[in-house]
Amino acid sequence: MRRKPNPDQRRRELCDTAIRLLADDGVKGVSHLKVDRKAGVPDGTTSFYFRTRSALLQAVAVRVSELDLKDLIAATRAQSPAGLTADEPSGLATLVMRTATGTRLIRTKARYELALQAGRDPLLDEALRSYGDRFRALIVDVVLRLQDKPDRALADRQAYVVMMFISGVMQAFASGDRSIRSAAELDALISGIVAGVGSSYALR
């Protein structure tokens, strides 16, 4: 007797299929029928689990954030207590470099497609925000480790600039640019940015 699929597992599988479609074809390339065909399930399966296209995209955003958070938690645990001067690269740099290849690159591309759509969809924006907040916390942690004397106000300013830089790096990865080749190289650039913003801040 054929076993019925586990509903939660089926939802995850459909969302993972939609992530691949987002990466390949953008938001306009995602529909219930296209997910069905890509996943190899009967027509109407995706619409059974996600009644509207908006509900599907929101579920995909939650799935992306769920997978991203697993990587982020691992990166946070791997963060060296000695900071970026240690022989090992920072958890942040390692996390970012991993987004350049494999399934994480697919997710990176999908995330940018969802982020563009989130500007017009508050529910989608909310689904993505939890990861953004945690990611920023990891950046602040790196910045504070680089400061001689911890200064939270300065760290917030430095973290903002570092986040914008990293967003650009990840967007470059999504478009095929591999100018930055290692976590150590990325750490060196982050250190330079933090030092530069710190110097500018001190002159005020």
Automatic annotation (TrEMBL):
Q: Which residues form the HTH tetR-type domain?
A: 8-68
State the coiled-coil residue ranges: none
- The source's domain of life comes to Bacteria
Q: Give the keywords, sorted.
A: DNA-binding
Q: Which GO terms describe its molecular function?
A: DNA binding
Which ranges of the sequence are annotated as binding DNA?
31-50
Q: List, alphabetically, the PROSITE patterns matched.
A: HTH_TETR_2
**SUPFAM superfamilies per the record?**
Homeodomain-like
What's the protein called, per UniProt? Answer: TetR family transcriptional regulator
Q: Specify the species.
A: Mycobacterium novum
